[in-house]
Backbone:
């Protein structure tokens, strides 16, 4: 019988032919053992492409660092909220640039994002820190996104500036030129004083002021001087109670840190407060490890509290429209803001600066220490920090306002 293609006889013939030629058949092929070399190498290849033992340890260690840092920062923010402005010994801890209350938790959150095990708890801690401290950062939103406000032609232009010991020797001409260039209706100037051999002494340049700045009335007490194109109908220093004894003969400098001047503006009386609140501590003073340092910080806290209480009480009893401006030596993060007069609002919403800062660390503005606050009867059209031209470590602040 003739066989058809694909039958068993054909397969047998193929096997015989292959055997005769020495070729390897399917039957001759042996299965690979379960533990072949290629199978053994697979785990080694996977381990070499991963982080490895050292990489895994390093990532776990970083994760713990970021998690611990986030937790400690949250504890600091909560302690700051509770203690700042209330106890004198917290002063060193509250002097960081306010922007750190925003930058630090964001930095921890971003850094911990690459750590699988700790990124979620770190993110929760950073979120809590932002909620508790983000409002202390001094960030002015929306800042640059605000439209430029048109200032009415009859608006008042007020300039407040800490002059840093008035002017240096030989710099009087530039100093008075800077004042004239501001073209202000009212100047609120602080540190109308000089320093001689480390001792603060009064000065008297009223005659030169009248020559250099004609058309202004002048009010002076201690280190505070107010110049006004409008008639001054009343002036008085704000008396603080409970001050420690003055250390030298210049008692007015020690006692009077706020000068109230009532101005007649278009038939109304505007009360202008020129303020210079004492610093929390003296830069370059005694060592932080000495008893004198801590005694000084405690004394300065006592002075600050007394001056802010007196200021708040005077504003509370004042029915006139109010402008308070000056060097308050208080950052947006410090609890002393709670002692500012109630009913006054910050002028910063009229600023287009994202981070308004008036006191510089080197060339970098880091702290806002100078403030302008107004009552409800005052409309602020624009608020800016200007250029001190190297004459002071404080920038002059300008307020355009209407009654």
Residues:
């Amino acid at each position: 019988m003739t066989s058809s293609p694909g039958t068993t006889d054909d397969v047998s013939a193929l096997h015989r032919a292959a055997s005769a030629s020495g070729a390897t058949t399917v039957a001759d092929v042996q299965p690979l053992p379960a533990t072949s070399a290629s199978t053994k190498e697979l785990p080694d290849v996977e381990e070499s492409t991963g982080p490895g033992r050292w990489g895994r340890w390093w990532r776990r260690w970083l994760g713990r660092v970021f998690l611990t840092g986030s937790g400690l920062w949250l504890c600091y923010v909560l302690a700051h909220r509770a203690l700042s402005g209330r106890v004198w010994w917290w002063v060193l801890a509250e002097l960081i640039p306010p922007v750190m209350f925003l930058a630090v938790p964001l930095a921890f959150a971003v850094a911990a994002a690459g750590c699988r095990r700790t990124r979620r708890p770190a993110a929760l801690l950073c979120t809590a820190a932002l909620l508790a401290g983000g409002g202390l950062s001094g960030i002015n939103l929306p800042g640059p996104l605000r439209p430029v406000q048109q200032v009415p032609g009859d608006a008042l232009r007020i300039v407040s500036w800490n002059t840093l010991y008035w002017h240096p020797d030989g710099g009087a001409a530039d100093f008075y030129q800077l004042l004239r260039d501001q073209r202000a209706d009212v100047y609120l100037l602080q540190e109308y004083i000089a320093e001689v051999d480390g001792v603060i002494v009064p000065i008297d340049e009223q005659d030169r002021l009248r020559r250099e700045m004609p058309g202004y009335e002048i009010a002076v007490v201690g280190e505070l001087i107010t110049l006004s194109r409008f008639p001054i109908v009343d002036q008085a220093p704000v008396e603080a109670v409970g001050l420690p004894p003055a250390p030298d003969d210049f008692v007015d400098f020690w006692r009077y840190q706020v000068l109230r001047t009532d101005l007649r503006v278009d038939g109304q009386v505007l009360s202008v407060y020129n303020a210079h609140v004492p610093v929390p501590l003296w830069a370059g003073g005694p060592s932080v490890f000495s008893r004198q340092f801590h005694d000084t910080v405690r004394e300065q806290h006592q002075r600050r509290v007394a001056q802010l209480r007196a200021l708040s009480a005077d504003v509370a009893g004042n029915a006139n429209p109010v402008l308070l401006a000056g060097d308050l030596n208080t950052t947006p993060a410090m609890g002393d803001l709670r002692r500012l007069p109630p009913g006054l609002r910050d002028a910063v919403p009229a600023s287009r600066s994202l981070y308004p800062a008036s006191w510089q660390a080197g060339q970098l503005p880091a702290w806002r220490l100078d403030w302008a606050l107004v009552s409800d009867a005052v409309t602020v059209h624009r608020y800016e920090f200007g250029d001190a031209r190297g004459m002071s470590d404080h920038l002059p602040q300008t307020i355009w306002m209407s009654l």
